[in-house]
Amino acid sequence: MAIFYILQVGEKQISACLQEEEEEAEMFALMVLAFFSLTCLLMRNYDILVWKNLPAISLTADSLTASHLLQ
Fold first, then answer.
1. CA torsion angle 50 57 9 24 (round to 10)
2. How many domains does the chain have?
3. Of 44, 27, 68, 25, whose CA–CA distance to 3 is shortest?
4. pLDDT value at position 32?
5. Are 61 and 44 in contact (CB under 8 A)?
6. pTM: predicted TM-score of the whole model, two decimal places
7. pLDDT tens digits, 16-71
8. Nearest to 29 by CA among 7, 1, 44
9. Whether 47 contacts 57, CB under 8 Å
10. How far is the first Cα of the chain from the last one, in angstroms, to the nearest whole number?
11. Domain range spanning residue 8?
């Protein structure tokens, strides 16, 4: 549950930053998304947390990364 909340807050923060200064916002967005992608990857590979909806978290992070890179 905490991961979902953090992802939602991160997404809102990224959206707010993207509306302000683009260069700094892009770097911030990439760092946040890289962190969450790595976290999801580690949780999945090393079974730190076993959740039924873990692939959904990874897909969310991947789609966020793709959508921000395309903009």
1. 120
2. 1
3. 44
4. 82
5. no
6. 0.35
7. 666 666 667 777 778 888 887 777 777 665 555 555 555 555 555 555 555 555 55
8. 7
9. no
10. 29
11. 2-70
